[in-house]
Amino acid sequence: MADLTALIVDDDENFRASVVELIRREGFATLEAGSLEQARVELGRSPTVVLLDLGLPDGDGLELLGHDDWVQTSEFVVMTGKSGTESVISALRAGALDYLPKPVDRSRLQTILTNVARTRGLKREVTELRSELRGLGRFGPMVGGSKSMQQVYDLISRVAPTESTVFITGESGTGKELAAQSVHRVSGRKDQPFLAVNCGAISPTLIESELFGHEKGSFTGADRRHRGYFEEASGGTLFLDEITEMPIELQVKLLRVLETGTITRLGATSPIEVNVRVVAASNRDPREAVQENDLREDLLYRLNVFPVHMPPLRERGGDIEILAQHFLDEVNAREGTSKRFSGTAKVHLRQLPWPGNVRELKNAVERAAILVDDILEPDVLPALDRTQLAHTDASSTLQVRIGSSIEDAERRLIQATLIELEGDKKRASEVLGISLKTLYNRLNVYEAASGSTKNAPA
After folding, report:
1. What domains can you pick out in the chain, each with its CATH number?
2. Residue 38 pLDDT more than 80?
3. 77, 52 in Cβ contact below 8 A?
4. In angstroms, rounded to a whole number, what is the distance separating the alpha carbons of residues 339 and 337?
5. Most buried residue, 67, 122, 297, 413, by CB count within 10 Å?
6. DSSP E strands: which ranges in 358-454?
7. Where are the beta strands (DSSP E) in 81-182?
C-alpha cells in the first residue's frame, strides 16, 4: 500500500470511479466501498483519508465516525450536496476533517488532500496541548477548568484543524474573541494573520470598503487604493464579531465571498482570490436575528457549520476564583506588586452574579488592585445585592458540594456568614454559636493559608 491512501465510500459506482481517477492524479492509492459493511473492512487497512457519503444503503455514514480508533487513524471528509445540513454539522462535530460538495470540484479536492497530512500533525499537537493544559485550567488564551469550559475546549480542538467556518455565540463579555483566537492558534493558519472586526462598530457607509477594499476614486474621499480586511487576512483567520449588526444588504456580498473565495474592491471590475477562514460571533440568538430580519438565513447556514457556545460566568462555578487570580497575577506582573485576595474576598467573588461576565470580573479585579496596597477585601469589590441571593425563611443559603471536607465546609460557612453580616465578627460568632476567640483563631488559620496573619483578637 502506498504511503498515502484514500478510501471512497459511496454506493454510486460511476461516481466512485470519477473520484478515484481524480485522487490517483494526486498521488494517492485508492480503496473503494459501496456500503457500511464494506467500508468497515477497508478501514482496517488504515487509509490516510476517507471520502464518505452519509447516505449508504445499509445505514448512515455517521456510524463510522462513532468509532474512535478509525477517527484517530484516518481523516474523514464528508461528501455532500448541501454544506449546511444538520448531518454535515453532526459529522464535523464527531471529528470529520472537512466536507466536499458534490459534484466534486478538482481544485477543492486538491486543497483537501494537501491539507490532510498537515491536519493529522495538527490533531496530534492539539491533543497534546489539551492533555497538558486541561489540568491547569487553561486552553490557549482561555482560562477555566469548569465542565462547561472543558466542553468548549473539546469543540475547539475538533474544529480548529479543519477549514470549516465557526459561529460562536454567548453573552457579552464571555470571551468569544478569545475562543476565536484559540481556533486560529491551533489551526494550520496559526502563523498567518488573525484580524478581528466588530461589525457593529463600523459605520454602515464604510463597512463594505473596510471589508472588501476600494480603488482610488471609487467614491468621494477615496484618494488611494485600500486593501480591505479580507485581503489583509488572506492566508489567516478573519473574526467577524457581532455579525448580526452587519447591514443586511452587505450580508449578500459576504455570502458570495464565502461561496466563491473571491472579493471585488469597490470601484473595481476584476475579482481577487482570497484564502480566509471566517469565524463569526454574536451575543444574540442567531435564529431570533433571522426572524427579526437582522441576519440572512442563507448566511446563517453558511456560517453556522460548526457552532460553539460560550457559557456565562455564573455557570462556570470555580472558574470565577481561577479567573480572578489570573487577572490579579497579571496586575502583579505588570506593576511589580504582590497583592492577594483574602479568604472572605474569594467567597464574595463567587457570590456575585457577574452580569457582565469575564469582562466585568477583569475590570473589577483591576479596580480593586488599584485601591489597596496589600490584601484585597470584599469592600473594594462590587457590592452584593441581597435581592440576588437565594433566601429560605428570610435567611441566605450556602451550597456545599457533596464530598467537601468538614474543614472546607466550616471555612466557607464562616466566611459567608461574615459577608452576610458585613464583617461584624461579634455578631457572626453569636450566629455561628462559637466564641469570638474561636472565630478569630479560625480566621487566622484561613489567612495564614493564604500568606497573611492580619486578624487578631480585639
Report:
1. 5-123 (3.40.50.2300), 165-311 (3.40.50.300), 315-449 (1.10.8.60)
2. yes
3. yes
4. 6
5. 122
6. 375-376, 391-392, 395-396
7. 98-101, 138-139, 142-143, 166-169
